[in-house]
Design goal:
It is built from 12 helices and 8 strands. The protein is of the alpha/beta class and about 400 residues long.
Length: about 400
């Protein structure tokens, strides 16, 4: 009989603004096929920018039943459809607005939406380990806002004390889209008046290596005999194939234009992501599941092709993003089935492991008891040692 292996599962969700609809729809499919919520299926979740919104929502505990999640992936999908138009309203002269102010969009609709979903929950309140990347612009260094389930927060920053909505707002503070701001943590709960201020923006600058970071953290946390499964879900960034002449023709503004899929930012993130994915394949092979695709900006006029823009919240584009996600699901149907089979059996494997451990302990106790009886012996009438009694 095949031995059931222990599994430690990791979920990594990319950033991408409104394109977060894509991973939300794919996760809905995974929840429906397994019949279980993401909070039960994964030990560790990491999300960059819009990925943090999704991951955070799926780990929020229910008020009436705190061991269960409040929201399903289907709920998150509805949330995106309802909120996107408010966060990214259509406006004329976007380029002029971007040049004349510090940010293109008012952050209030986004912050109101995050408060609606997260309330005053803190990082320590979520149902699984959660890691959120952000960029520290005060010290120019990468930051991982981290909560590890079941462990005491030993970070000097006190990330467990950070409001979940603040952590998500930090990683979604994409430059030129939303203004930067300070966020507070309380490193020591016994001295709540002493707080640290952090100047944080979008974690997308280095978030392409999120899979690798999550994998390294999982290796520290997983049981020694467990297999680590990493699931990466992307948001389908723009696919660009450029000659030097085409690249040069964009000019400085064209390279950062959303209409072109923010080519410069896309290059930075995509190169990092692909390099990380290649390294991960070398390390864990088919234990890495990656669900993503490409969007070709040249096909934007197609009735089925979505925009590569992070802020195209038009209703028709949102529908196209859902269709794009469903195409990814169809193209990866057998891999999703394989993943779901692993996810459904992971609890059974853990139960079998615990049963085996209990049986091994019982056997060890019996052998120890037998050894004790052997060592005690019996005295015969002549004062010599009698026969050994072995139960």
């Amino acid at each position: 009989m095949e031995k059931k292996k222990r599994i430690f599962t990791v979920l990594s969700i990319d950033g991408g603004g409104v394109r977060g609809i894509i991973p939300a729809r794919i996760l809905q499919e995974i929840e429906e096929r397994t019949g279980k919520p993401v909070a039960e299926l994964f030990d560790m979740v990491g999300g960059t920018s819009t990925g943090a919104i999704i991951g955070g929502c799926l780990l929020v505990p229910d008020e009436k039943n705190p061991s269960q999640p409040r929201f399903s992936a289907k709920d998150v999908l509805s949330f995106y459809n309802r909120l996107a138009g408010k966060v990214f309203p259509e406006m004329r002269f976007k380029s002029l607005r971007k040049l004349s102010s510090g940010a293109l969009y008012d952050p209030k609709p986004l912050e109101d939406g995050l408060k609606e979903k997260f309330g005053d929950l803190k990082m320590k309140d979520v149902l699984a380990s959660l890691l959120i990347p952000a960029s520290d612009i005060k010290n120019f260094k990468p930051v991982w806002i981290t909560h590890i389930k079941g462990q005491k927060d030993n970070s000097k920053e006190g990330w467990d004390s950070m409001l979940l909505r603040d952590a998500v707002r930090a990683t979604t503070s994409a430059p030129t889209f939303f203004p930067a701001r300070y966020f507070e943590t309380t490193p020591n709960e016994e001295t709540p008046n002493i707080r640290h201020r952090h100047a944080l923006i979008d974690g997308g600058f280095f978030g392409g290596n999120a899979m690798q970071h999550l994998f390294l953290q999982a290796k520290k946390l997983a049981p020694p005999d467990a297999e680590i499964i990493v699931v990466h879900i992307g948001t389908s960034s723009a696919e660009n194939s450029l000659s030097p002449e085409e690249f040069n023709a964009f000019g400085p503004l064209g390279l950062v234009s959303n209409a072109n899929g923010s080519i410069l930012m896309s290059l930075v993130i995509k190169m990092s992501l692909r390099d990380t994915e290649n390294d991960m394949r070398d390390q864990i092979g088919d234990r890495l599941f990656s669900f993503d695709d490409k969007i070709n900006p040249k096909e934007n006029n197609s009735s089925d092709s979505p925009s590569a823009s992070m802020d195209d919240a038009r209703e028709e584009n949102m529908q196209r993003l859902v269709k794009h996600a469903e195409k990814i699901i169809r193209d990866n149907n057998s891999e999703i089935d394989r993943l779901c089979s692993i996810l459904k059996n992971r609890e059974f494997a853990e139960e079998k492991h615990l049963e085996s451990q209990a049986a091994l302990q019982k056997l060890t106790d019996m052998m120890a008891a037998a050894s004790t009886v052997k060592g005690s012996g019996c005295e015969n009438r002549s004062g010599g040692r009698g026969g050994l009694v072995v139960p």
